[in-house]
Amino acid sequence: MNRTIAVDFDGVIHRYSRGWFDGTIYDEPVPGALDGLRTLMQHYAVFIHTSRSPQDVAPWLVQRGFDVQVEYPGDPTQFWTERGALLVTRRKLPALAYLDDRAVQFTSWPLALAELLPADAAATTPPGSVDQVQVSAEDLRSLVQLARCHVENLWITPAEDLALIERIHAQLGGEK
After folding, report:
1. Which of 2, 11, 25, 140 has its CA 20 to 30 Å from the CA of residue 57?
2. Which domain of life is it from (predicted)?
3. What CATH code would you report for 4-99?
4. Nearest to 7 by CA among 97, 122, 72, 78
């Protein structure tokens, strides 16, 4: 079983409040990021993946008390399995999970498209699907966000979320 977790740098560890800005690593850590990394490192091998140069990211992490290894071009790492040290790489290595502030979890193309397309784009199910239902992209996007809030069967459901669920349920042909 893969016991490695991948963590994105900008927006997950580094606050990245001004975006790419001038290419420097200018911000403080995201609140809880350093403790979160240390906790993950107690249970998993952890690597940092970034679009930045790993040689720029590594000193920022070292200054904050981490043991860091850098993957250099021409010497690619195939797997990262070392606990207690962070690998910094530009590549997506095999991992159990990828923690990223810009990720969209893939479950199906219709849900992915609803998440990625502009709100005014039509939400359609690909041809050939047996159970085709028209749901607005905005409703589907909201439903995806609502589903993300569901943790271990614990629901705290505001009235507007209940209305959304009832509207989609009705569109699916459900009874009230």
Report:
1. 2
2. Bacteria
3. 3.40.50
4. 97
